[in-house]
Model the fold of this input.
Amino acid sequence: MLSISDVEKRYDATVALSGASLSVEPSEIHALLGENGAGKTTLMNVLDGITRPDGGVIRWRGSEVRIDSPRTAAALGIGMVHQHDRLVAALTVGENFALAGESSFTIPRDEIRDQLADLTDRYGGAVDPDARVSDLSVGERQWVSLLRALTGDVSLLVLDEPTTTLTPLERDRLFGALREYRASGLSVIFITHKLDEVFALCDRVTVMRRGRAVATLAVADTTRSELASLMVGQAVDTDFDKHAVEAGPALLLVEGLSVRGARQTVTGLDLEVRSSEIVGIAGVDGNGQRELVEAITGIRTPDAGSVSFGDGTAGWHAGRSASVARIPEDRHRHGLALGRPLWENLHLGRWHHRGLGNRGLLNRRGARDRSGDLLRTYDVVCSGPDQLAGELSGGNQQKAVLARELGDAPQLVIAMNPCRGLDIAASRFVLDQLLEVRSRGGGVLFVSYDLDEILAISDRILVMASGEVAGQVVPGPQATEEIGLLMGGAVLGGPR
Amino acid sequence: MDSLIELFISTAFVASTMRLAVPLILAGTGEVISERAGILNIGLEGMMLMGSFTAVLAADATGDPWLGALAGAVGGMAVAAVHGGIVIVWSGDQIVSGLALNLGALGLTTYLSRRIFGTGQSEVAHFEPIDIPLLSDLPFLGPVLFAQSPFFYFALAAAAVLSFVLFRTRFGLSWQAAGEDPDALDSVGISVGRTRWTALLVCGAMAGFGGASISLAQLFTFIENMTGGQGFIALALVIVTRWRPMWAVGIALFFAAADALSLRIQALDLAAIPFQLSLMLPLVLTLVVYGFAARAGRPPAALGRPWTKA
Done:
């Protein structure tokens, strides 16, 4: 019903798509698999009329079409659910439906209420049209986006990495709805970089790499390792070199920590990270992980409880000198000064080390030389220490953050979502570096929303839900299920 | 003390408060719409001043105050269009553009008025208060509510209409979306640029009417810098309304009362209070109210941010 052939898109010097092709049959769930930056989202934005391609042909039900606006796409029957939902948070659910709806002067409130009721009857989930979107949880927003995309006569639904922020339960509900949808003769394009989801849900899979569709296969006829190597263009080793190490004395001690946050309040939390240990913190986004990390790293002041480091010092600013590193969640806002050169970024907050600035003057040459070494060691692709941090790709920016934070061989590392937005190879590099800290006797507190990452390298996993530690899980065959229950159960019982 | 209370309930004082509120209501509701759509319009003062001038120009040339009022709106929209070109088309800085437009409008109107009208200038065709039959004969309420200039009734109607459009129509929703989350608006296929343009031009027209209401219904002529900071008061007023058009009416009345009081104090010619001090009253009050109200509301999330299609 849909065939896209040889679509090209160029942004100045970078090529986003070069000969991307895809064809979708009626009644199928078609996976679009690829790493970050492979061009999956760009291709779908072309299909939705958001991005104008430089070349290529789109055929819909046999005839060539030009899609120049999301309205055109909607009129053809293509519905889109973006990775980051495109709902206006300040408006209500119903108003968001009206915004995307057919043109009428006033807001057809009753009509929208009926539409929503029909959709929830069919696909499940209770949605209040008068609820303000900003009051909804991430999972609920995702569901509203899905229902909005299904409004009207939609015969092809496109979902861009829809499971990133869902609990396992919400994920199952979504998969159920998509199977239901397929059963009624309609099709889905399911964008993902997770192999598990391809096998759990999809009929066929198109793999993209570097802006090109490299293969389309029936899911039943392929294997994980075949898909993985198509994705990265080479065979990848999915096992980590994690040999058993005996955990030593405590490096980080959090006792009875309570801290108020914008979205969640952490109450009475205890945790400990010992040397030669990686402690994973799992949980759905917004269950207090950010508040915990901000309290430990001195961004947020705790209401009660204490944070102390291995040598007995309390509080982050004392901890800094005791060789504690921090890999922030958002490298653009808290990790790097994008408009400054790399050599400055690599020494932010570190001028008191190594005689670089301890007499009140900066030793620029020393810092530049050291930067060159660090950039080589951490394999940062750049033109040199004078390049601006903002000019690097996401993966290389993250490597630069690692170079700064890990370059001093810290005892303790606090890492939050360090692989966010990175491709397989870059993620692998980051996780290997954290394992390296562990094997030389350091401790790591590893907070991530990606369960696979946590399971891959953690020695033990604490699951956070509603601002508390819901339980501890040790990696093993049952771990995923146990974590899912702790995450989901607590979320269901928590405030909505 | 008694005389002060008498002042506040005197017909003349309340009626003049109503009259002085008109330009603030007009410009304030316009600015609410513009800011709702994400465009900060520091140039409001300049748009008002241009409206005052073009209104007098047209009223003088045609002898028809209605055409004058219309020309006032066009003058305000012309300044708004320059702002739109800078901030929507070229993604320029909204504050810099607004400041420049205020200075530009002041210079241009001053130059042109001297050039066209010379220094001594007489009254042009203008609006007299409209006495609504019967109602205007009511005690107190009559002169206060039913014997005002057409601008007064227009301002109230415009605030109500714009409030309805903003909250009850799809058009208004797209204004709100353009100011809160332009990417979301774009993703449903509505042009962010076009949406912001309409809001900005509505604002320009309203500010132009506001300026015209000063020149055609208060002073009957054009005087250099005759808006005298009312655009800035309207700008502050928007924050106090928390971006709701109907609130602009109430808040504008409050500021206008301060203005009327300041005029009264000057008229009383008290030796204890220099007239410069009483002139400051409305502006000082603006600052104080602004200081209290600024933290209460949350401005539209994308206010002041240029948006370009990826």
Q: What stands out?
A: Chain B has one domain: 15-117+136-293. The longest strand of chain B covers residues 130-131. Chain B touches chain A at residues 168-171, 173-174, 176-177, 180-181, 183-190, 300-301, 310 (CB under 8 Å). The mean pLDDT of chain B is 89.
